[in-house]
Write a structure and sequence with these properties.
- The chain has five helices and six strands.
- With 122 residues, the chain is of the alpha/beta class.
- Strands 3-4-2-1-5-6 form a six-stranded mixed sheet.
Length: 122
């Protein structure tokens, strides 16, 4: 059975030297490289990968790139709160949740709901 893989996008990018270098040149390109890596890693699995970024738009934006769903939070809402909401919805629907972030608050929120947490280095 597939699970929801939640990725704290900018948290991953801030913690990895190669993404820091890419972000310095083009944040959009760095985001696309992360999405490409995730799509390649999970392409032969039944898992749904959801990457959440802090957005600056008035409304939440959801994009699809191959097997990866990309969400930008709406104005006034953090990526962390979107991740917590997605984890709660998945758990309520009976789906397993796995989070990749080094942010202690979002990790705690997801683990309290029964989700598994991993570090950005994983």
């Amino acid at each position: 059975m597939g699970r929801d893989i939640l990725v704290d996008g900018y948290n991953v990018m801030k913690r990895d030297a190669s993404f820091q270098a890419l972000s310095a040149k083009s944040l959009a390109h760095a985001r696309q490289v992360l999405v490409n890596q995730l799509a390649n890693r999970y392409r032969h699995t039944p898992h749904q990968v959801i990457v959440v970024f802090d957005g600056d738009g008035a409304s939440e934006q959801t994009l699809q790139d191959r097997r990866v769903r990309i969400i930008y939070s709406r104005a006034g809402e953090t990526a962390d709160s979107v991740i917590a909401r997605l984890a709660a919805l998945a758990q309520a629907a009976g789906r397993e949740v796995e989070l990749y972030s080094d942010d202690s608050e979002v990790r705690q929120s997801v683990s309290q709901q029964g989700g598994k947490v991993g570090s950005t280095s994983q």
